[in-house]
Amino acid sequence: MTDEAIETAAALQSPPIADPVDSLLAALDLTDTGARTSEDIFTGPSEWTAHGRVFGGQVLAQSLIAASRTVETERPAHSLHGYFLRPGDVALPITFSVDRIHDGRSFSTRRTQAYQNGLPIFSMIASFQTDDPGIDHQIDMPDNIPDPESLPSIAEALGDIERPMNQSWAHPRPFDIRHVGQPIYVSADAERVERQAIWMKAVRPLPDEPILHRAAMAYASDYALLEPVFRRHGLAWMTPGLKSASLDHAMWWHRPGRADEWILYVQESPSAQGGRGLSTGRMYSRDGMLMATVAQEGTIRLPR
User: Fold this and answer.
1) Which domains does the chain possess?
2) What does the alpha-carbon distance between residue 138 and residue 100 come to, in Å, rounded to a whole number?
């Protein structure tokens, strides 16, 4: 079966929820099973994807929500470090176990494991902290970035392309994503650079819950983060035989922000080697406040 036939079959298995934000909120609305051993147990659904594998940003955000359910609300998440262990199956729910590793005077540490069929698909450690005063500085937002309203959305760029994978990029996402410059979904950019920037925000308002906005930012942080590696080597997502997968993901929240307001996601790749590429990203509010920093390494393989 060809790649396109596999995509078509997967796309026909189960249609997405009509409102992608409803799908996101449903995925993050974890169920407390009431089970208690040495860990807290939660379950959550999997969102539909065209290729049948759980979106990494989804399980990342769900794992953060699970951990936050065991921490006082006065201690928001300030960092997470996670590893993607196995592909998740969108046809199955996910079980999350949370180990309350440590609670100190200012910090709480939690480990979340995500399981399907009894096997871990994702492992994460997150840290939470009270709002403490201290020194403050940031790297400023880049200058001369066009406003998001002046840029085409993915739906406008790909909406008339019938291939199922393209349609999954263009329409069912809960975030409006707009590239500063040429997107590389179908064809590579002629300029070989290891950086890019995108604007993104939820397609409609989200509830006023700070942890939900941090989880939504974690969800969206998995979008496009390996693209600077692709750009540096003249690759597009549709390059024949290209295979890529996230290996790990780290995120640090610096300042409060909303995921339903425009975020400038500035990304770059410092290195690629050994079949792996590393990318980092900085998330700015529209008025230039640095809200979060992200790092991810992924496998990137081409036909020999």
Assistant:
1) 3-133+147-301 (2.40.160.210)
2) 31
